Amino acid sequence: MSMAMAGLLAGMALGFAGYFGGFGAFVLVAALGAVGFVAGRILDGDVEAREFFRARPGGRDERRR
Prior knowledge:
The structure is a single chain. The protein has 65 residues and is mostly helical. It is 78% helix and 0% strand. The protein contains three helices and no strands. It has helices at 3-44, 50-53, 60-64. It is flat. 2% of the residues are buried.
């Protein structure tokens, strides 16, 4: 499936959610779509899960000293 087709389907899903369910449903569908996108990228091997959870250099603990 091309990225244009995936974008079309995502846009249609958000449109239906917004029209029939209101703003709350729109936000819920958008958030779950983002989670699904990230999960798909992790399963495809494009992104590693530890990239989201690694400690940043110069974090809060180092600034307190």
